[in-house]
Amino acid sequence: MTEKQNTLGAATLARVAAFAALIAALGLPGSLNLFGNAVPLTFQTLGVMLAGAILGSRRGALAVLVLVLLVAAGLPLLAGGRGGLGVFAGPSVGFLLGWIPGAFVTGWIVERGGKAPGIARLILACAAGGIGVVYLFGVPAQALVAGLPLGKAALLSSAFLPGDLLKAVVAAFVAHGVRRAYPAAAPGRDR
Questions:
Q1: Residue 38 burial by CB count (10 A; 0-12/13-18/19+): exposed, middle or buried?
Q2: What is the residue-averaged pLDDT of the chain?
Q3: Which residues contact 52 (CB under 8 A, 6 or more apart)?
Q4: DSSP assignment of 143-178, as one string?
Q5: pLDDT for 191 beyond 60
Q6: Contacts of 83 (CB under 8 A, 6+ apart)
């Protein structure tokens, strides 16, 4: 990797900021609590998947990290207007923190697909990072914070799976279209 690829230029910072804003904007429709689950269903995981699939591992994770830091600073950027340090003591903390490695893994898988990863790779990447990794962090944290057995927390979280799988497919098709229309948006590793 060259030194130029290691630096955060204005274009990279703009992309990171734009995706942090996109993830925040996807929280505007609000949230929905399914089947008594304390963790809400939101569209924001779609933004996490898109960040990884379009920006790549490092830039995608950085975009999510920026959003998480802004939430920690008190900005109401999560669905339902939530923000502040209190969010990090709630049952959704693992899902929120899992967004960062989730975007990284999504981007990492996409980057290994070369300059033009196919739809199947993009769907796999979005599902592995945006669902698998996020749940890997979210379910145990929800169980711990809510005082639930791990199996019960996993069962509650399974209500999100159909919607999350749909988000993975949508994110894959959007990322495929963006990468075809604007190849310069792809991470340096892809070019």
A1: middle
A2: 88
A3: 60, 61, 102, 103, 104, 105, 106, 107, 108, 110, 125, 126, 129, 130
A4: HHHHT--HHHHHHHHGGGHHHHHHHHHHHHHHHHHH
A5: no
A6: 70, 71, 73, 74, 75, 76, 77
